Amino acid sequence: MNAQLNATHDSRLRSWVASANQAGTDFPIQNLPFGTYSLTPQGERRIGVAIGDQVLDLRAAGLTNISDMNVLMAQSPREVSALRAAISQGLAEGSAKQRQWSGFLHPQDAVTLHLPCRIGDYTDFYTGIHHATTVGKLFRPDAPLLPNYKWVPIGYHGRASSIGVSGQQFPRPRGQTKGPNDEVPVLRPSQRLDYELELGVLVGQGNALGDAVGMEQAEAHAFGLVLLNDWSARDVQAWEYQPLGPFLSKSFASTISPWIVTLEALAPFRAAFARPEGDPQPLPYLDSPGNRQQGSLDVELEVWLHTQAMRDAGLSPERLSQSNFRDAYWTVAQMLTHHTVNGCNLQPGDLLGSGTLSGARSEQAGSLLELSAGGKNALKLANGETRTFLEDGDTIILRAWCEREGFQRIGFGECRGQVLPAR
Prior knowledge:
The chain is an alpha+beta fold. The chain has helices at 69-73, 77-91, 98-101, 129-139, 215-218, 234-240, 289-294, 308-312, 332-340, 368-371, and strands at 34-38, 46-51, 54-57, 105-107, 112-113, 122-125, 155-157, 163-165, 168-171, 174-177, 186-189, 193-194, 197-203, 222-229, 232-233, 254-256, 261-262, 270-271, 296-297, 300-306, 318-324, 351-353, 379-380, 386-387, 395-402, 410-420.
């Protein structure tokens, strides 16, 4: 497992970039997430690292000759770790690089942030057992989980072309739906539009076709994590999902955060992975000592809603829920290993979604489908509005961070998306 602590994690480290030392920043020197940016919306795309409220241009700083993020992600973990160490040393307080590198910093709010890499393929898993159980009860009260759930990391092949970066806006999707009182299905804008709180794993090194990746090597193929909102049209999904699963109900838009938080940055926030008593243990190919000891990641997650009425009144967004990645039923290593056990070849930049990450309590739900009990119980917001599903103009904001005593807090930035009226 790739979870070794080193000098880059030292909580005493401070940066000569003042904003990186401010309390509560997502991007202290201990984080150093990678992303792709340009100085103008149509300008040349560059590889950068977030530090405080700035972004450091890696090529300009002489840290790499690579200009393509997918090529950088394909490097070995050893090479990426060496690059991270060099960035950390150069940005550290007292570094001789300060005068030179100061000219290679750009305010994040003055540049255009893009998808961090080219995403060739997208697989969405279903690792959130509390989400699976709650949703299953809506349709199968006596047997919410299907028999395979605790044995197989369930996933489906998603649509990569409609994945956008934070700030994405998209029209309300149209699709074929059939309500309980409809004699025949009709084509119409979705009336049950929802968000899904997820984390995404971006693949670094790939594997050759036919070569399965074992558990102990799996995380060497994971470059890092991003926030992921896998928007879902629940009414379209209910009509189309049998027998082959989601299609138009999810292919219209997915949104990710722009900064990839590396697994190395997440090393201080590891946790043991264990199944609840009485549950079956993973099959041997999905098990390893390293995964049992530190396969889980302690990542706090939040969902915020900002309606049009809130914006018009000058009100701040309202938090809808909070959960944690530790509650996932399958780990990053298990997702990667299972994905390749049949010989499937992953490639740099492939995205693996975690599935909706909900907690055991009702207020920890990662979707409106759960929070509203399938649309039966409307949520009352602080400004008097109500929601069962999303309305036009609604903006959903996902946030995530890691905290542990003795280490510096790090965050993921925002994953923000807005629903526009149907076309």
